[in-house]
Structure formats: C-alpha cells, structure tokens
C-alpha cells in the first residue's frame, strides 16, 4: 500500500516544487511520512504512512476523492479529506484561526489526522531556515498560536505531545 501511495503521489506532484527550497514537492510528503514512521506506533501504521504521503493530493493536485477512495479505501481517503483545507473557511476567518479551530475539534480532525498534521507542520519548519526573516517569523507565530490552542482545547495523546515538543524545539532553534 505504501509503495502504491508513493507511486501515485510522485505522479500527481511530478511538476510541483517546494516554494522555498526548490526541491521536488514529493520530498515533503516523504518527510511527513518519515516523521510518522519514527514517532507513531499503530496497528494502522501503513495506512497512516500512506495518508501522510497522499496528504496534499486533494488540495494541491487534480486528484478526486472518488479516485482516492477507489485506490486506497475509506480510511486513507477520510484522513486525506480531514487534512485538506477548506479554502473558503480559511479565507473567511484567517489561516491560523482556521487551522487552530479545525485541529482542536475532534469532530473535524481525528487523532490520527492530527498526528499527520503535526508531522506536516514539523516538516514544514525544516524549510524555514531558507525563508525570509519576515516569513519565518509569521510562520513561527502561526505555528505557536496553533499548538498553544491545541494544548488548551484538545485532549492530546502521547504522540501529539511528543510532536508538539519537537515543533517547539524546532521553533526555538529558528530564533
């Protein structure tokens, strides 16, 4: 299943590159998948790693929900949907408020999806050293707002707490 997800994501992201580093975009989902693999013990680890690899396909490519469901089943499709940003809602209330609200709501983001989203944030932080100071500061403040909101408003698992601790450490290193 992981190989199938990797092949699919490579194809879907083949003409995309990371804004800051200029690297092929596929390196990001692979980075997120690696963080999941290193930090999460689960009987569904293959599904979680596959969802991590596919997490941006609905949002950033021409992939359809139907296509994901046919190829990867309900669980992976559901996780990818949970990780997909509602552009209208984000625009309406602002990105950091949208993410803090969505990530704090167990009805909008399951525990498994939250693990992937935190791994996504952690991987994104690795690019910040190459960003402008203004963007780095903005993204860092946004991330702190989100994780502070999570810690205040949601019951967190050991894995969530471990990833948040790593995010805080990475933010400290960027100062």
Structural summary, described in words:
The protein is globular. The chain has helices at about 1-10, 25-40, 45-55, 55-60, 65-80, 85-95, 95-105, 110-125, 135-155, 160-175. The chain has one domain (about 1-175): Hypothetical protein af1432, CATH 1.10.3210. It is mainly alpha-helical. The protein is built from ten helices and no strands. The protein is about 70% helix and about 0% strand.
From the structure above, extract its key features.
single chain; 175 residues; mainly alpha; Hypothetical protein af1432; 10 helices; 72% helix; globular
Radius of gyration over alpha carbons? 15 Å
| The top level CATH class name | Mainly Alpha
CATH topology label: Hypothetical protein af1432
Number of domains: 1
Strand tally is 0
Distance between the termini: 39 Å
Number of helices: 10
The helix content is: over 70%
Label the structural class: mainly alpha
CATH architecture: Orthogonal Bundle
Which percent range describes the beta-strand content?
under 5%
Inertia-based shape: globular
């Amino acid at each position: 299943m992981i190989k199938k997800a990797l092949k699919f994501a490579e194809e879907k992201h083949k003409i995309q590159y990371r804004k800051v580093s200029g690297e092929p975009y596929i390196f990001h989902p692979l980075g997120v998948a690696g963080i999941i693999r290193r930090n999460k013990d689960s009987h569904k680890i293959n599904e979680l790693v596959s969802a991590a690899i596919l997490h941006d396909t609905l949002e950033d490519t021409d992939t359809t929900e139907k296509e994901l469901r046919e190829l990867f089943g309900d669980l992976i499709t559901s996780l990818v949907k949970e990780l997909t940003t509602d552009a209208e809602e984000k625009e309406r209330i602002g990105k950091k408020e949208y993410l803090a609200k969505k990530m704090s709501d167990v009805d909008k983001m399951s525990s498994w999806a939250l693990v992937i989203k935190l791994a996504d944030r952690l991987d994104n932080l690795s690019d910040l050293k190459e960003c402008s100071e203004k963007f780095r500061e903005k993204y860092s403040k946004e991330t702190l707002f989100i994780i502070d909101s999570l810690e205040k408003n949601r019951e967190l698992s050991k894995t969530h707490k471990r990833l948040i601790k790593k995010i805080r450490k990475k933010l400290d290193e960027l100062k």
